[in-house]
Design a protein that fits this description.
The complex is a heterodimer of chains A (381) and B (383).
Chain A lengths: L7 H18 L3 H7 L4 H9 L18 H12 L8 H15 L2 H13 L4 E4 L15 E5 L2 E11 L7 E7 L6 H4 E7 L5 E6 L11 E11 L3 E2 L5 H37 L12 H29 L5 H26 L11 H6 L10 H11 L3
Parallel strand pairs in A: 1-4
Antiparallel strand pairs in A: 2-3, 3-7, 4-5, 5-8, 6-7
Helix pairs in contact in A: 1-4, 4-5, 4-8, 5-6, 5-8, 8-9, 8-10, 9-10, 10-12
Chain B lengths: L6 H17 L2 H9 L7 H7 L18 H14 L1 H8 L5 H7 L2 H12 L5 E4 L15 E5 L2 E12 L6 E7 L10 E7 L5 E3 L13 E12 L3 E2 L5 H37 L1 E2 L2 E2 L4 H29 L5 H26 L1 H4 L5 H13 L4 H13 L4
Parallel strand pairs in B: 1-4
Antiparallel strand pairs in B: 2-3, 3-7, 4-5, 5-8, 6-7, 9-10
Helix pairs in contact in B: 1-4, 4-5, 4-8, 5-8, 8-9, 8-10, 8-12, 9-10, 10-12, 10-13
Classes of the chains: A alpha+beta (381), B alpha+beta (383).
Amino acid sequence: MEILHYTDAHRDFRERLRTFLAEEITPHVDQWEADHIVPKTAWQKMGAAGFLCTWAAPEYGGMGGDFLYSVICAEEMARTNHTGLCSMLHSDIIVPYIDAFGTDAQKKKYLPGCISGDMITAVAMTEPDAGSDLAGMQATAEKDGDEIIINGSKTFISNGINADLVIVAAKNPAEENPYQAVSLYIVEDGTPGFKRGRHLDKMGFFSQDTAELFFNDCRIPAENILGQEGMGFIMLMEKLQQERLMCAIGAQAAAELMLELTIDYCKSHTDAAGKPISKSQAAQFAIVEMMTDVKVGRAFLDKLIGSHAAGENVVVETSMAKYWTTDLDKKIASRCLDLFGDFGITEDCPVARGFRDVRVMSIFAGTNEVMKGIAAKFMGL
Amino acid sequence: MDFKLTKSQKEIQKAAWEFARGEFDKEIIIELSKIQKIPDKITAKAGELGFIGIHFPETYNGGGMGLVEYALVAETFCRKDSTLGTALMFCAYGTECLLRNGDNTLKDTFLPDIVDGQLTSTAAFLEPGQGNDLSKMSTRAEKDGDHWIITGKKVLVPAAPTADVCIVLCQTDADAAPPAGMSLFLVEKGNKGLSIDHPRQNMGGRMLPLADITLDHVSVPENTLIGKAGSGYRLTQQFFMENRIQIAAQAVGTAQGAFDRALDYVKQREQFGKKLARFQVTRHKLADMASKIAAARYLTYYAAWCFDHKTIEPHLAAMAKMTATRAALEVSDEAVQLLGGYGYMTEYEVEHFYRDAKTAELFQGPPAVQKDIIADGIIGKLK
């Protein structure tokens, strides 16, 4: 019995996506990992094939799909074993801000490009001194006639190099209450005063173009504010549930993939006497324990996806799922490598990249410590 | 019982720290790790100052000290930098096989240069398609007059492309029941028939790229046989016992280095209006980390001390290796977490401590292999 009710249309969509990824994405992944970026044309191919922003309304060029299409996209992308073409971030975390809070004019201007892949998006919240603590944000936005001037530095911005459109969180220096000071702004590539900093070197996520972004007297038209002034925190809070749920979905799919690759290896590789690794009792128990964790995670997650799709407030469970699945990834990656032995030290091992990649998942989108803090708060502790 | 380091041990620790502080350059380490190279001349410098082969007799230019002193140097180097520290401690990898069992002329020929950092060594045990299982070797060495002819393939040999000499485990008696009939040989880089594959890209330990080697009728003189013919498996296990204590010491340093960086960070980083070090959960994380390091360190020192006092047993070395590399992984994992987004960035170093810790946990047998050895030791023979 499936917890989620996937229809034949969903299943066909998953098959089409899987075929598309196998043909158009997976063959290039190693090159993109080496290049530390994904070419924009790959995004356009995704868009042209209908795999970006699947929820978007047909009037903008979308397919108007339900949340399960977003889930399918996130799961299948995770199975490509790379993170550069971070379409989940674009489709189901960033562009929804424009859809939910944008004016008609903004939606008309930006959504078609986001759906076609001509416009890659990034969201700039984190700053060098404000990570999980968004209230500590320093970037400012000040009105000057019919323009807004943005100043500040942002860091760890995913899609930072490729982004054509950046949603920037900045605060009004005149407002003392930090929770009422933040607004969101749309900054287009090429706006004077908007510069990209370093393309950051990191443990994993090699194909993902994480970067610093700088705003120096960056002037944007006043109509580029996204949503109401001072409502930044409220908008972020509203959207963070889905952001963290998407992370959990990606993490769950990554755990499933790593375990699957490891089981294949253990069944097809032997010791000197010709006995497959999977016949070792210790390996069997390790695999069974991992599979149990993965299945427990899947059941919890699918239930949560159903609740979220039904519009329920599941902030506690989402925080739990984000921390639990991303911790699970670390544990599974490490235990899987143990089964590969010395071969696990090399990047030729199919789980080595996963080991490096998943390590950031317990940090981004709110650290797992922040997740526990949120759960504690909403549990009334 | 005396847990104090002697005056000379403290001096060694201090000298190792000063060397590492003076010679280990963070930027250079990060850049060279990307291309899997070790900084120029650093091996020679470490050799010149007596850090390589500190546990070798003075007759071979060694320090005439024991594994405890080796452990202090390894820990100190890896604390400063896990990648370079490990690479330096591995530039004499496998040489203990030669020192403890080799022919005198062979020792005279190679040991002084290795100890001085003029030559580097490695060792090749693993073969394709059998994981960590060394009970059967496909690589064969056959006697031909006063030479041995070696043919076979070895995999995942650390720093194979740069090593000048390589200890190779071969089957010399094809009819012996596994794991009998194996022998160790010393093969030089220039030997005809020895070819080294392009090194693999490492996930961790990026100054020690693993490469596969092929031996196609490599002819080596009789005296390159280390120990007696047929003793190869036993000598390999003896070497592994020693090497596991060495890896444990490197892991203790890796854990400490990650801890140092995390501690510095949480003492200065403020979030939610206060220093991270003031949050109870941060304090408890640090308490866990420090406890794990202490447990790993004293078990490792004890194993090294037992080795020096000739009371070491394989299961104690395996316990030290398993415990210390696990501590290194858990502590560096928590260090990455405490540094948040910075922890994932190359520039902040702890990310490579984490990869190096996992590498140490996998190298020379992942936990399951160590547990097999420990179980053998503590259960004994069943009736």
